[in-house]
């Protein structure tokens, strides 16, 4: 079956901070020209959708803001559907995507994303107490990545802070982002998984999560790729970078 749609990870796959990965801008154009639908899917929780769109356009990519589906997007829907009034451990930019706090209601949950400035004792302790004061202990982890790629190397992700709150409050977080099926169902938005492929640098969150949903998975050796992370079943393809992943898709569709 030919590939009709590609879900493309952002940080570490399409770009690293403000630098596209090798030949990624041109490769994305080739993928579009071949008639493959693209959607950009990311666990990035530090930047709002507007900031992500502005950055990608600034470094050379052509895309519409509506083509971005982030774990923030999924979390906003989760908060809205659950009528929650959370305490947020988020960056100021990411917080813009969420509804305003209702001062007439008690905070009934905690939402955690990548927020380096918020991971201090005072704010973590506040989150801990919000969880203790609510019987449901609703802890929402936009994602719980162990680490992510920056220009100066790997950096600590929000996962350890989520796990700390789980341990202290005696609760289990509701995971929203990759590799959760909730995320991939939202990203697919009705597309047939068997005709879709996920391109990413994270063996577990990108590739393992997508393949469990019936997509094919192309793992790239950029970003936070680590050769000693073994995935079972293995990725559909292992390639050097995003441009090579596009070559793989186009070759498969021509077969």
What does it look like?
This protein has 255 residues and is of the alpha/beta class. It has 2 domains: 7-43 and 191-254, Rossmann fold (3-Layer(aba) Sandwich); 75-175, Rossmann fold (3-Layer(aba) Sandwich), CATH 3.40.50.1000. Helix content is 35%, strand content 20%. The protein is built from 9 helices and 14 strands. The strands form 4 sheets. The chain has a 6-stranded parallel sheet with strand order 5-4-1-12-13-14, with helices on both faces. A hairpin with a 2-residue loop joins strand 2 (15-16) and strand 3. The longest helix is centred in the C-terminal third of the chain and has 13 residues, at 242-254. Belongs to the HAD-like hydrolase superfamily. Phosphatase that hydrolyzes imidodiphosphate, 3-phosphohistidine and 6-phospholysine. Has broad substrate specificity and can also hydrolyze inorganic diphosphate, but with lower efficiency. One of its GO terms (molecular function) is metal ion binding.
CATH third-level topology of the largest domain: Rossmann fold
Assign an overall shape.
elongated
Question: What pattern of helices and strands is seen along the backbone?
Answer: EEEHEHEHEHEHEEEHEHEHEEH
By helix and strand content, what is the structural category? alpha/beta
Q: Which spans have pLDDT < 50 for at least 5 consecutive residues?
A: none
Integer average pLDDT: 93
The biggest sheet amounts to:
6 strands, parallel
Number of strands: 14
- CATH architecture identity of the largest domain: 3-Layer(aba) Sandwich
Strands ordered across the widest β-sheet: 5-4-1-12-13-14
CATH superfamily of the largest domain: HAD superfamily/HAD-like
Cofactor: Mg(2+)
GO molecular function: inorganic diphosphate phosphatase activity; metal ion binding; phosphatase activity
Protein name: Haloacid dehalogenase-like hydrolase domain-containing protein 2
Keywords: Cytoplasm, Hydrolase, Magnesium, Metal-binding, Nucleus
